[in-house]
Amino acid sequence: MFDLEDFRADTRAWLEENCPASMREPAREDADRCWGGRNPQFKSEDQRLWMERMAERGWTAPEWPTEYGGGGLSKEQAKILREEMGRIHARSPLDSFGIWMIGPALLKYGSEALKKQHLPPIVRGEIRWCQGYSEPGAGSDLAGLQTRAIDHGDHYIVNGQKIWTSYANKADWCFCLVRTDPDAKKQLGISLVLFDMATPGVETRPIKLISGASPFCETFLTDVRVEKSQLVGEENKGWTYAKYLLTHEREMISGMGRTASGDKALWELVADAAGMDADGKLDDPMLRTDVARWDLDAMAFALTSERINAEAKAGQGVGAASAMLKYYGTELNKRRYELAIAAEGADAMVWEGQAHKGGALPRAWLRTKANSIEGGTTEVQLNIISKNILGLG
Amino acid sequence: MFDLEDFRADTRAWLEENCPASMREPAREDADRCWGGRNPQFKSEDQRLWMERMAERGWTAPEWPTEYGGGGLSKEQAKILREEMGRIHARSPLDSFGIWMIGPALLKYGSEALKKQHLPPIVRGEIRWCQGYSEPGAGSDLAGLQTRAIDHGDHYIVNGQKIWTSYANKADWCFCLVRTDPDAKKQLGISLVLFDMATPGVETRPIKLISGASPFCETFLTDVRVEKSQLVGEENKGWTYAKYLLTHEREMISGMGRTASGDKALWELVADAAGMDADGKLDDPMLRTDVARWDLDAMAFALTSERINAEAKAGQGVGAASAMLKYYGTELNKRRYELAIAAEGADAMVWEGQAHKGGALPRAWLRTKANSIEGGTTEVQLNIISKNILGLG
Amino acid sequence: MVNLVLDDDARMLKDSAERFMADKLPVKELRRVRDAEDADGFSRDAWAEMAAMGFAGALIPEEFGGAGMGHVAMGLVMEAAGRNLSPSPLFATAVLGVSAVTLAGSEAQKADILPRVAEGKLLLALAVDEFRRHRPSQVDTEATPAGDGYTLRGAKLNVADGHVADRIVVSAKTPDGAVGLFLVESGAAGLEVERTVMVDSRNAAILRFEGTPAVALGDVGAGAGALAQVLDIGAAHLSAELLGLSLEAFERTVAYINERKQFGVIIGTFQSLQHRAAHLFAEIELVKSAVLAALSALDEGSERTPLLVSLAKAKAAQVADLATNEGIQMHGGVGMTDEYDIGLYMKRARPAAQMLGDERFHTDRFATLRGY
Amino acid sequence: MVNLVLDDDARMLKDSAERFMADKLPVKELRRVRDAEDADGFSRDAWAEMAAMGFAGALIPEEFGGAGMGHVAMGLVMEAAGRNLSPSPLFATAVLGVSAVTLAGSEAQKADILPRVAEGKLLLALAVDEFRRHRPSQVDTEATPAGDGYTLRGAKLNVADGHVADRIVVSAKTPDGAVGLFLVESGAAGLEVERTVMVDSRNAAILRFEGTPAVALGDVGAGAGALAQVLDIGAAHLSAELLGLSLEAFERTVAYINERKQFGVIIGTFQSLQHRAAHLFAEIELVKSAVLAALSALDEGSERTPLLVSLAKAKAAQVADLATNEGIQMHGGVGMTDEYDIGLYMKRARPAAQMLGDERFHTDRFATLRGY
Q1: Closest residue in chain A to residue C277, using alpha carbons only
Q2: One Gene Ontology cellular component annotation (chains A, B) (predicted)?
């Protein structure tokens, strides 16, 4: 108990000293986020400093063991770190699919050699990762993947095509699902392999989205050589690791409803845009009705996320709760942005113009439409709930 | 044109003279409706008079041919009659499954002998009919019916059980679907037969509903003798006639949304219950939002019913439109009553008490819950739309 | 930060409350009192057993003979009652009446009333509403000083268990315009009680006061503040009841569609029903959290209590509507018959959702408390 | 009783409008002007063809060189434009501008302006909004008498085609506080035009008037009445556009799910998608009726016009949201790509739904007109 209080005091003091002032406000656009990598793009010197200082302490991955470069913090310490960062509104020093996704999978399933090779550069922000999962035409049917890896003794030769690979054009390495046994039943012939995006035969093409951004790519793999040493876990067991990663992804996406409500409250945004009446109520009573119903759901949802986390810690969790959180959280976030653009009216419709921040709001609104598609569609989550929780069908 | 205007003038004069004053206000409870039959129950002498006078002119079934006792009116004349009755708020002189359902089916598919036998007593309100369709455990799967009719030369012997037979305990005759060929595929072995409810072996048991009323029965058929002369159309073609009747029923039920909005408007009821503010708006802005959205849908739905009728007359109709009207109309009516009880608050919750008309509102509210089940569930209508109109699946 | 996980004690209580309600006060019992047109509307024997179990005095401090269990614990009892549609004086007496006396009563009044309530020997009721929809600010009933006490003139509606209560707590306006709480004895002069049977087969009363003698419950000036707390407590426990009711209606419906066949197929395999059921599951999960948060906030005396109570009541009311509507629709024709229980769940859902403020009342209050 | 069935003439027009838009102004054309960053935002050649087809002058009386087709007929052209997301001055010039000049203009102004519009040689715009949400009652722009005319001071937002209009009809307040309509020429002194590209790749402008010379459009005193009618006309035609857009988005989505396979199965066979599609079908049927009723009412000069227009706009806006949201969700990942058209339907749905009053604005107005 005393140790934790000491830790809090030390952390607070260190953050006060080391977190640059400009890193103490929320990221407003993509360039405000630091993704690291071989050719890192820093918007400012402060951004670089902040990442390097945190990485040095392993605090970009606070709970990873120190032997792999992590912070080696206990759950309680990590929570204190988050709280103290929250207190000064410190920005995340490093956004990383390495930290969020492949890192945890390697810690759980990877060989010692793979951990030693890959985890420290992830913590230091030196290698940026992307995920090779979905394939064209497969959609939610992930297990139907066709990318083939042919065994050549010490290496595989991989051919195929991936789609929706986030920032593949900016990533250094890829964790990729491939079919190693074409004769096995769907899920049973899949393996998880890692390769450098600079390997000959890897090509990427950004996909332009309706929001105008291109965060995703098509990735073409033509006779790509992947060393067997880069196989995660066992051959043909990749589906197990994939499911673990998917659950992680789902939780990340379902957090969106919450993150959003952690920003400026929707009602404040609506009040700014639509005004308040003399009684201190939102000026448009019908909009107020809709905002209030959203707000209720958002608060009840935030409490539900907390409750389910707390129950999981207390060992009381229902399985498959992540499907429920993913479903509800993403639908909430879509509703939030529909209400936001309704409140902002014509201002929210401006795509390019001198004012209105380059169409940030309509682009963000359009972006939310993917929430209920990526990481398992809403329909897939509802199937999971009805089958795994309710036992229907 | 002149003829129609003359007809209108004559009709108006006749109604003025013959429609008793007490029949010029809406039916408030079931006893206000006249169902006729062998043992008719008239709430008042006016009610009897009104039915008899209208029946004498055939105006209980205005468009049926005069040779079967009907009014022999053209569509235009019938419309004028409806308008003129509406003008003085004249009540329907006779509610009758004979007029609504089996009558039109007989006109379309019945033999001359059957029409001659059954139609005139229907017009005169002398015979009350019920419908033997659903069977226990079958639900929406009407074609799976099990009631057997065994051929005995000039008659059938019928055994089986029916459920949801409306007012079977008060009806004189039944139009009933039976299986005449047990080896044929589901729909192909069904026939439509008519029998007197007084036939030995016919027993009825009312089903108590959540509203407290018992408008439906279970009907048990044990070795019931049905003359072959009472077979409608051809043997084993009953499914065709059943579908015709079902469409009729569906349209009748989908009319509910409209009928309801033809009564006192929902908003007036809400205004009476919840009050208006100084600006002349409903006092509860959230209730006003919900009422207005319902009201919009109800008006758009009423226009849609009109449009589809008009298109059908102009030969432009989409088939299967009745599924859409049934679906939307019944869901609207359910919403209407949810809003009505919300507005009335605790008053709407009173089931038995000195005031509040014996729980009329909560009983009516509970009754609406069957709208989306009877005559083909909402789910069945949505299936019909998606398959027959949208070509899905 | 409210507590969102039940500890072991709470989980044991939850089990025993659920067992008690399922054994002693199942839906069958509601049918029995309904069909017998029982004058009380509940079994006094069962109430005695509930007192023995500690439920009657769950919210009564130990010093006055109660169990002092707190709101999270009592909420579990209410949830179990909701699951079984158990008819009893639990809500009117042990939640509303007890809270009013505990929060507003003088020491002498507490010592007089609470131990007898805990023993199951005294029934209470709270008379607040004067309009068909919950409008706590509308108080036209007048309390005029008379001797040591007051006389009341006015009328109250929708008083749960008003027909059997031995003591009735009444909100009324004093000559200076302030709202206070007053105590009336059953059978008092000038008190007219009109019993009303509600759609859920429970009883509510219309009370008319025509110069009815009453005494102040504690300090008249503190009545309005206490009443506001009592209304929050009541709304939170109705939310717990609605949660139990929704859960049970949902579970019965899922079980039904998982058995029932149509066109030769189990209807629970139809994807449209599955998705609707899955959505309803998610909504009920939200209600669970909101109800627990509201009850925890009451126990902790959190200043966010009114906000969380309105959250719980609005959400519980909305979801109970959905759960019972879907319940009947998915049951199909049999859902409309009195023989099946699902209709009884719908008939309880609406009055419980309306009492002390419906979905719209609490959504509006939530928005106002949030600052917009 | 409004007319709800199209006669043969109307059906022929519908066919030819649909053929024209699909041939000459398909979605591809919107992509072309967008990607070329076309300064006008539409093809002037295509507009000349539309003029030749009679679309530019559809609402212009025959005496002024138009086709005098009426609103039901023009609504069919708007619906076809909605189906194809056709970029053209149809709405700003041929609906808003023409209606304003026809209803408010003097005979001389009509004779000057309308024939040239019908020939496709003059473009118009209507400048009303001063706030980000449609609030027609908020008019702070001031018109001060100056010589034979007026000078304008103020600013207008969200002026569709304001960047290309040759003449702009502006609502402004005269010194006596009344709202009138004024005519400003493009390039007038003290007129600043800031072009803005909207989410639907169309153009709207912010106009600033700093002592800009203007003339009254007809009789200043009659301006407010005419403006109210023009706003209803505009809202009705936007509803028609939203109907076409919703129908096309819906039909493309149904076609897509009827082809697309997942887990080896056509996804259109999944019942949950079927039921959602069937529901959307029903909603679009309601929009059809509401739009036709509003346009018929305009043609008939019915006093129910404002009510029916608000019905149509509220319902069309609500259903266009649903149709495009479901469209993207049912398309899945590809729906999020710029390559597929369905996203463009969503991007047009929102500004068309918001312009001249969104779902809430018209629901509120509907309720007020109904009397509550």
Answers
A1: A386
A2: plasma membrane
